[in-house]
Amino acid sequence: MPAEPVNVNEFQQLAKEAIPKMYYDFYAGGAEDEFSLKENMEAFRRITLRPRVLVDVSRIDLSTTVLGFPISAPIMIAPTALHKLAHPEGEVATAKAAAACNTIMVLSFTSTCTVEEVASSCKAVRFFQLYVYKRRDVAAVLVQRAERNGYKALVLTVDVPRLGRREADIKNNMIAPQLKNLDGLFSTQVESDKGSNMERFANQTLDASLRWEDIAWLRSITNLPIIIKGILTGEDAIKAAEVGVAGIVVSNHGARQLDYSPATISVLEEVVHATKGKIPVLFDGGVRRGTDVFKALALGAQAVLVGRPVIFGLAAKGEAGVRRVIEMLKNELELTMALSGCPRVKDITRSHVRTEKDRL
Ligand code: FNR
Question: Which domains, from first to last, does the chain contain?
Answer without folding.
Answer: 10-359 (3.20.20.70)
